[in-house]
């Protein structure tokens, strides 16, 4: 069985290691890490040391590990189990014996520098990952967010993303080359972050100055709507009743088919920020409208798909366990069949029927597909026609 000793270090030359870690190094022959790590640890390495550079693709590195039946000492930055190589080795070598000697990670070093109370800090790693990692804490209004960056998700691009969605309510603590002789730390506004020159590696801690006040049941008049068609959106009370029928607290992926202004998608994502929301709309003008509304209500992270729904390659998307049909283009039966084929077992479809014809079509389509019709609700608002909120569940 393989054995890995993973030693975390900072960027200080000749890092201060404990006695056990030094002993493992002295008694071992095989070592691995980045080029930077080798330079820092050089004085500790025995003369016969053999070094394996950790470079991409990692599969090549792991193939070399598998050829070794001795202990491999891996040198890593900070805490190897904090979004580090330690977790990757655990996944790749689940039966291996693992010994870990951590150092402080970069966010800890930055928090220590500014004496920030970081016990409740939410971590958002954008290192090799996309924006949903930071969307969740932003929508939740987390008071402190630690952000791990990379060469694509830089302080500049992160600052622009925050400003695009109105998250200027945070101060930013930026740390560069933390734990080494060239460490640099600065406290900045999000706007100042845009004008900054910086070096890698770096990380950020966002500290909230004031919360964004959110409202469950956003007033209809607050949304930007289709020009000349103000009634073309799901009204607030109907929207909330539909969201209730969807039972999103137990959902993972919502498809909003026919999003129009994006009111259902935005309300759903705001209330359930962990939810993956995929929104579809045929009207080309709706693209700018939903994006403006997302920024207006500080709700990033909705995956938007424009064009004819029936021409979309749905197999490329995350399968839904919840679907809201906001528009069907007169092809409700065909849409139900297409959705049923990709809907997860026990998933449901919710539809607001505004006529007896669409009510009958939805029910008949659901029964033909073997779905279970749930109890419906009938609501009438002011002078509008009554609306029947229908729900069908996929039973398998």
Describe this structure in words.
The chain folds into three domains: 3-103, Tetrapyrrole methylase, N-terminal domain (Cobalt-precorrin-4 Transmethylase, domain 1, 3-Layer(aba) Sandwich), CATH 3.40.1010.10; 107-208, Methyltransferase, Cobalt-precorrin-4 Transmethylase, Domain 2; 220-393, Rossmann fold. It has helices at residues 19-27, 35-41, 58-66, 85-92, 106-114, 132-140, 155-164, 190-194, 236-246, 263-271, 286-296, 332-342, 356-368; strands at residues 3-9, 30-33, 50-53, 72-77, 97-101, 122-125, 144-148, 170-176, 184-189, 202-208, 253-257, 276-281, 303-306, 322-325, 348-353, 372-373, 377-379, 387-393. The mean pLDDT is 93. The strands form three sheets. Strands 11, 12, 13, 14, 15, 16, 17 and 18 form an eight-stranded mixed beta sheet that branches. Strands 3-2-4-1-5 form a five-stranded parallel beta sheet, sandwiched between helices. The chain has 13 helices and 18 strands. It has 396 residues and is α/β, with parallel strands linked by helices. The chain is elongated and about 85 Å long. Helices cover 31% and strands 23% of the residues. Pathway: Cofactor biosynthesis; adenosylcobalamin biosynthesis. Keywords: Cobalamin biosynthesis, Methyltransferase, S-adenosyl-L-methionine, Transferase. It comes from Ancylomarina salipaludis.
């Amino acid at each position: 069985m393989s054995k890995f000793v993973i030693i975390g270090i900072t960027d200080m030359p000749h890092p201060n290691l404990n006695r056990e870690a030094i002993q493992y190094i002295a008694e071992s022959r095989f070592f691995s890490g980045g080029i930077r790590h080798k330079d820092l640890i050089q004085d500790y390495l025995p003369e016969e040391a053999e070094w394996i550079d950790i470079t991409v693709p990692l599969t090549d590195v792991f193939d070399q590990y598998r050829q070794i039946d001795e202990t491999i000492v891996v040198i890593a930055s900070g805490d190897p189990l904090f979004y580090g190589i330690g977790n990757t080795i655990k996944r790749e070598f689940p039966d291996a014996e693992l010994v870990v000697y951590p150092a402080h990670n970069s966010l800890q070093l930055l928090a220590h520098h500014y004496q920030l109370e970081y016990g409740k800090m939410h971590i958002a790693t954008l290192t090799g990952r996309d924006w949903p990692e930071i969307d969740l804490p932003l929508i939740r209004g987390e008071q402190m967010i630690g952000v791990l960056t990379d060469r694509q998700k830089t302080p500049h691009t992160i600052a622009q993303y925050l400003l695009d969605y109105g998250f200027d309510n945070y101060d930013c603590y930026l740390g560069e080359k933390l734990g080494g002789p060239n460490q640099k730390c600065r406290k900045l506004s999000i706007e100042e972050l845009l004008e900054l020159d910086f070096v890698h590696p770096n990380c950020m801690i966002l500290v909230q100055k004031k919360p964004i006040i959110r409202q469950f049941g956003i007033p209809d008049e607050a949304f930007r709507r289709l020009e000349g068609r103000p009634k073309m959106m799901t009204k607030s009370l109907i929207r909330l009743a539909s969201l209730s029928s969807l039972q999103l607290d137990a959902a993972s992926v919502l498809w909003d088919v026919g999003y129009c202004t994006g009111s259902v998608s935005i309300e759903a994502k705001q209330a359930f920020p962990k939810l993956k929301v995929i929104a579809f709309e045929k009207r080309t003008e709706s693209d700018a409208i939903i994006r403006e509304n997302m920024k207006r209500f500080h709700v990033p992270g909705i995956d938007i798909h424009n064009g004819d729904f029936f021409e979309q390659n749905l197999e490329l998307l995350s399968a839904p366990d919840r679907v809201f049909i906001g528009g069907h283009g007169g092809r409700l039966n065909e849409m139900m069949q297409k959705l049923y084929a990709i809907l997860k077992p026990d998933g449901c479809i919710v539809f607001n029927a505004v006529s007896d014809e669409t009510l009958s079509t939805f029910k008949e389509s659901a029964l033909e597909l073997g779905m279970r019709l749930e109890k419906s609700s009938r609501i009438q608002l002011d002078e509008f026609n009554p609306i029947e909120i229908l729900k069908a569940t996929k039973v398998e």
